[in-house]
């Protein structure tokens, strides 16, 4: 069984799970860009039961249907919570102690990607969410 552990830069907020992520995807949307100060993020969605968080992340409602959580001390982006899937949580894969464990398998919101930020892998690039067409 693979244990996934990670946390923010200062270590004030840590997480751990033994569950297997449902998916791991690059997101190129403008909200993720602002949140991370980066051209894209990689987020993995996983069952919230058994996902333990130590420390207290700060919470920001980033849209009508979603909240984002981050470390109040170092500012590290950590979790994405959708009101539509309350049983799931997404964590930022780059915050894992070993990000190699959860490689992304697709791009979402690829249509919003920056022209100078090209990721030349062969993964499917969806226009918006995973159920939208590839571009
Ligand atoms: Zn921190
Ligand atoms: Zn996004």
Please state how the strands of the largest beta sheet are arranged side by side. Answer: 6-7-8-9-4-3-10
Strand content bin: 35-45%
SSE string, helix = H, strand = E? EEEHEEEEEEE
Distance N terminus to C terminus? 36 Å
How does the overall form come out from the CA principal axes? globular
Question: What this model shows, in words?
Answer:
The structure is a single chain. The protein has one domain (4-112): Beta Complex (Metal Binding Protein, Guanine Nucleotide Exchange Factor, Chain A). With 135 residues, the protein is mainly β. The chain contains one helix and ten strands. It starts with a strand and ends in a 27-residue tail after the last strand. The protein has a seven-stranded mixed β-sheet with strand order 6-7-8-9-4-3-10, with helices on one face. Strands 1-2-5 form a three-stranded antiparallel β-sheet, with no helix packed on it. Bound molecules: zinc ion (ZN) (2 copies). One zinc ion is lined by residues 8-10, 12-13, 71, 73-74, 76. Residues 8-10, 12-13, 71, 73-74, 76 line the site of one zinc ion.
